[in-house]
Amino acid sequence: IQAKAIVIEIDTPGGEVQAASKISDAILKASVPTISYVNKEALSAGVIITISSKSVAMAPGSTIGAAETRPKEEKYISAWSKKLQTVAEVNQRDKQLVAGMADADVVIEGLKEKGKILTLTASEAVELGLADTVAKDINEVLAWKGLTSNEVVTFTPNLAERIAFMATNPYTAPLLLTI
Description:
- By secondary structure, the protein is an alpha/beta fold.
- Helices cover 41% and strands 16% of the residues.
- The mean pLDDT is 89.
């Protein structure tokens, strides 16, 4: 049985850039249509995962952006910004918007001044073409794409995966190392 689409539900404050890049590569190589659904937030590394999908839906009240690197050094900012721009270009999204999310030096007339990092609401992302639609839940996303919920197979992380996520979370890991 061939999947009709893969829907990736996203709610993340960010994470490790290399891991997000690998996820992005897998999404870009998918042989079926991919849909990112930003449930609450797609911040930092969550931006690249979101824009890697062919279609992007966002929940009302959700946000995308704030993708500046840590450490905040020119070398990392430049490489990460170009990676985001490349993925945006592949999926015909605005490269300047994602650059503004990663690089405080990028100026976007009427939207972002120098020294600030860009973050967009769901409605702003749709208006600017970074997202395609606002959907209140997965069922609305499925309906938007002509899919039905009775065909959905849901994958959730098992206990070991949740523990690994907690241990590698950029907010938790330093605390665990200190302990």
